[in-house]
Amino acid sequence: DQQVKQNSPSLSVQEGRISILNCDYTNSMFDYFLWYKKYPAEGPTFLISISSIKDKNEDGRFTVFLNKSAKHLSLHIVPSQPGDSAVYFCAASGMAGANNLFFGTGTRLTVIP
Amino acid sequence: DTGVSQNPRHKITKRGQNVTFRCDPISEHNRLYWYRQTLGQGPEFLTYFQNEAQLEKSRLLSDRFSAERPKGSFSTLEIQRTEQGDSAMYLCASSLGMNHGGYYNEQFFGPGTRLTVL
After folding, report:
1. Which residues contact B20 (CB under 8 A, 6 or more apart)?
2. Region at A7 (left for phi over 0; alpha for psi -120 to 50; beta for the rest)
3. Residue A17 has what pLDDT?
4. How near does any CA of chain A get to the CA of B61, in Å?
5. Which residue of A32, A103, A106 is in closest CB contact with B104?
6. Could you tell me if B113 and B90 are in contact, meaning their C-beta atoms sit under 8 angstroms apart?
7. Is the CB of residue A104 less than 8 Å from the CB of residue A5?
8. With contacts defined as CB-CB under 8 Å, which chain B residues touch A34?
């Protein structure tokens, strides 16, 4: 039972353009959401997070949007750079982030120079 | 380097053998988590510790798996009588926990131990 879903396995974007990665969740008890980036042979690296009391959080080139009614969040990267090429995982947690994270299956982003 | 470290990075073993992995979390983090990741999937939660107490176990953690964090610092994950289905990347993560001035403290992951069971 996949509670966090990333329906696009891959995405290709030209350097300098916007990358939009999407994530849907089914469990209405989730109240904290995170994005991780993963390079080959490395563990996931934390990128940005958002709590359910907000609908937007921004950190430099990265912005996460949360639409609670649609149970949907997205990660925007502007402008995209070749170094952003990686697998991006969406993750969610309940109980104010008390316990484990539920991850999506990931989206492989390729930024074309 | 003050990040999460895991050893070994790679382990190849024969079916039926026992294996043990070690995780050293970020020193001030009191929460430690174990996840498993298979090809094409995201990490799946196995278990977590608050200091030395193991507070939650996933149904994925069969009785062949055991995890310890004896002094609330490093942790070990042991798999007994390994099976080919145990082949995966085993990830360790740590976090500060709930009450450190923030709504939530993000989990920081180590590089993982890749297990191959022949």
Report:
1. B76, B77, B78, B79
2. alpha
3. 98
4. 14
5. A32
6. yes
7. yes
8. 106
Distances from the Cα of A62 to the Cαs of A19, A75, B37, in angstroms?
10, 7, 25
Residues of B with CB under 8 A from a CB of A: 4, 6, 33, 35, 40-45, 48, 55-56, 58, 91, 93, 98, 103-112
DSSP state of B23: E
Are the C-beta atoms of residues A49 and A58 closer than 8 Å to each other? no
Instruction: Count how many Cα atoms sit within 13 Å of the Cα of residue B93 in the half-sphere of its side chain.
Output: 30
How close is the nearest chain B Cα to the Cα of A94, in Å? 11
How far off is chain A from B47, nearest CA to CA, in Å?
8
* B39-60 average pLDDT score: 90
Q: Which residue has the higher pLDDT, B118 or B59?
A: B118
Using alpha carbons, select from A6, A108, A41 the residue that is nearest to residue B9.
A41
Contact A35, A64 (CB under 8 A): yes
Band of residue B28 on the pLDDT scale cut at 50, 70, 90: confident
Place of tokens 């470290």: B5
Residue of B43, B103, B111 with shortest CB distance to A42: B111
Ramachandran angles phi, psi of A37, nearest 5°: -115, 140
In chain A, what residues touch B56 (CB-CB under 8 Å)? 99-100
